[in-house]
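Issue: ligand-bound run for magnesium ion - logging full I/O for the record.

Environment: standard queue, default settings, no custom constraints.

Inputs:
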Amino acid sequence: DLPDRVRIHEVGARDGLQNEKSAVPTEVKAEFIRRLADAGLTTIEATSFVHPAWVPQLADAEDLFPQVADLPVALPVLVPNQRGLDRALALGARRVAVFASATESFAKANLNRTLDESLAVFEPVVRRAKDEGVQVRGYVSMCFGDPWEGAVPLHQVVRVCRALRDMGCDELSLGDTIGVATPGHVLELLSLLNEEGVPTNVLGVHFHDTYGQALANTYAALEHGVTTVDASAGGLGGCPYAKSATGNLATEDLVWMLHGLGIDTGVDLGRLVATSAWMADQLGRPSPSRTVRALSHK
Ligand code: HMG
Ligand code: MG
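Outputs:
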């Protein structure tokens, strides 16, 4: 059975823009986020409080966040450690996300830590955030394949998911960082997680569209009962620390499918397409989203 409503966790301003070669002006990012909110998105990941040398594209987080903080939407931000949480809390962030990996290689590449070291870093971060009444999302990257290690055993993913849940993460997002998943694999992982005590209602899915499977994978997840889906407006995105990662599932492509299925999202597709077409102009190249291209008159 498909759900009646899906909550879209919009990641374009973070996952999308963290991968742009050119620096996007802070004012353009703020305008992007305002327009996404105006299009009806209610959860808009705004930026990351990571080391500025690691992700220079988001080094303006302190300038950006206050410009959008008053919007009537949830604005989660990524925090890799206590220093990141300090920065986020100082600006009044009410939602944060830690980001773990199912593999050692990516933990090292992305966080400069072993997998267990990174979990040890997150533990007090999650505890402190929860004590402050801040909602915490836990990302798990490389759930379906890793560019260095290849296939990722399901039990490795389960272990990291359980560790993040035990710490107190309210929600998990299963990341297909390099976009290699296929629907059967998605269903296998979701079923195993349920068997191992991780219920579907705390799970979101985060697909990158490298192999064109993101929508098919999303459909499989919806049939399993997942109701939180990550997507990026215009299909922006990738990850600077994972070679062969391309953009996320485009929010417009997702909305087209969901509305076609009669599933409510609260999103005004016309306004969203106009926003992504505007952003594509700012970036100087067309959106990779099929729906944006079909519906924008250029
Ligand atoms: P490190 O070099 O090991 O840092 O990097 P450290 O802990 O050794 O600290 C070194 C210095 O950095 C210290 O300063 C810290 O204060 C400072 P010093 O004492 O030398 O003057 N520092 C910071 N400064 C500002 N903000 C901070 C911070 N932390 C330390 N938060 C670190 C470790 C985690 C910092 C680094 O590896 C990092 O920033 N990584 C972030 C990488 C990233 O953002 N990747 C993209 C997001 S993940 C993703 O895209 C996947 C996802 O979309 C899901 C999917 O698709 O799978 C979520
Ligand atoms: Mg991602």
